Inverse folding.
């Protein structure tokens, strides 16, 4: 198959890196986003998100004329859908963005096109895309549909897009083959072929596995506080066993994948995904537990000093050294503290401003705060000097002499 043009639907954390990578590999790429400001920024050769190396890829792709952003799709040989898949308040998956993107490309679909879903989705979503196009009159018998879930780590996306193995599952064997052949033109990792439903479930399985393991670490953290044990030392010692590899606890679990995808399985399983559901609830509860620890420390400070505690919440992103706030437990915790009228300084060195509250420089926050709460282990927070009269709570692993458990026992 001769591939001359690719249309990428969604220019966010996955769509833009994918579009810019493909453009730098020589493909003509038409990127689509519903936000005009995002389109304008990209067409200037700039980026609207923080991701190492992405700016260079986008600048090169736009300058070469291989990448053009727009708010509307166009005809192409391959359509890649990389839009958000959030869940509703009751943890029911919401695939409205996928359905909307699919409908928007309907007028441009032609015989022999490949339609690829990269968005992490509930099992059966690729079939929904095919049915959506069929319902609006597209002859889907001559279109190839496939799912190829992204498997990248924020902060390393540009490297992992190329070097990670990829799973490709089509709704037909031919769709699987032609889609896999396309990915092999730019992926140096192995491209693994399966069917669409297995590919969809594989991504959910990968993130549920991670969620379950993080839940174990988070539960250990809470139990260590109860038993008067240093959780970091406990994990370090336990991991000296040759077949044990406990992850590091945190203030919860965030990001669009691990904090969301397990609910897709729980919703579809109708009561049968008991372990996955419990892990998800444990990780959500850890954030509530952290909030109570902070509030208790603030109350003790007020009783001892006779004044209201000023609290620095260090980090809002869902993981270190990125600007991604999606499903971030650190952001959730900070919002809750603001809502409960505590005196809070919000710190996030990877963003300049935020709509809900002011962002404070981390050095200023450390200087002004009575209680310093580390929620994310950003590089700026490593090896910093903190006055001895400050109370420090750390719910993440830092390369400084701050121990989570000491503060959890307070």
């Amino acid at each position: 198959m001769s591939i001359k043009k690719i249309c990428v639907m969604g220019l966010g954390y996955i769509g833009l890196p994918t579009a810019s990578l493909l453009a730098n590999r020589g493909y003509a790429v038409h990127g689509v986003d519903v936000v005009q400001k995002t389109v304008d920024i990209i067409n200037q050769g700039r980026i609207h998100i923080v991701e190492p190396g992405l700016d260079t890829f986008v600048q090169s792709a736009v300058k070469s004329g291989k990448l053009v952003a727009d708010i509307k799709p166009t005809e192409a040989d391959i359509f890649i859908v990389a839009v958000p898949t959030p869940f509703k308040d009751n943890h029911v998956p919401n695939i409205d963005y996928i359905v909307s993107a699919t409908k928007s490309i309907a007028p441009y679909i032609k015989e022999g096109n490949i339609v690829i879903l990269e968005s992490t989705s509930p099992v059966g979503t690729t079939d929904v895309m095919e049915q959506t196009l069929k319902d609006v009159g597209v002859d889907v018998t001559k279109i190839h549909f496939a799912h190829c879930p992204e498997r990248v780590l924020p902060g390393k996306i540009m490297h992992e897009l190329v070097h990670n193995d990829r799973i490709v599952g089509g709704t037909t064997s031919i769709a699987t083959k032609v889609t896999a052949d396309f990915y092999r033109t730019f992926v140096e990792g192995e491209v693994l072929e399966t069917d669409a439903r297995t590919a969809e479930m594989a991504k959910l399985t990968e993130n549920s596995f991670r969620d379950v393991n993080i839940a174990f670490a988070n539960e250990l953290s809470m139990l260590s506080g109860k038993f008067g044990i240093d959780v970091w030392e406990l994990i370090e010692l336990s991991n000296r066993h040759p077949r044990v590899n406990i992850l590091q606890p945190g203030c919860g679990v965030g990001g669009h994948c691990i904090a969301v995808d397990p609910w897709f399985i729980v919703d579809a399983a109708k009561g049968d995904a008991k372990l996955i559901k419990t892990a998800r609830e444990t990780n959500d509860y850890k954030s509530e537990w952290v909030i109570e620890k902070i509030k208790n420390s603030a109350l003790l400070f007020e009783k001892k000093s006779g004044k209201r505690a000023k609290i620095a919440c260090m980090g809002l992103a869902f993981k270190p050294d990125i600007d991604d706030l999606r499903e971030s437990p650190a952001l959730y915790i900070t919002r809750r503290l603001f809502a409960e009228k505590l005196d809070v300084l919000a710190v996030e060195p990877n963003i300049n401003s935020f709509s809900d509250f002011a962002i404070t420089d981390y050095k200023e926050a450390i200087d002004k705060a009575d209680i310093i709460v580390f929620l994310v282990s950003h590089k700026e927070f490593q090896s910093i000097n903190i006055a001895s009269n400050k109370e420090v709570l750390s719910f993440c692993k830092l390369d400084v002499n701050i121990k989570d458990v000491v503060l959890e026992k307070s």
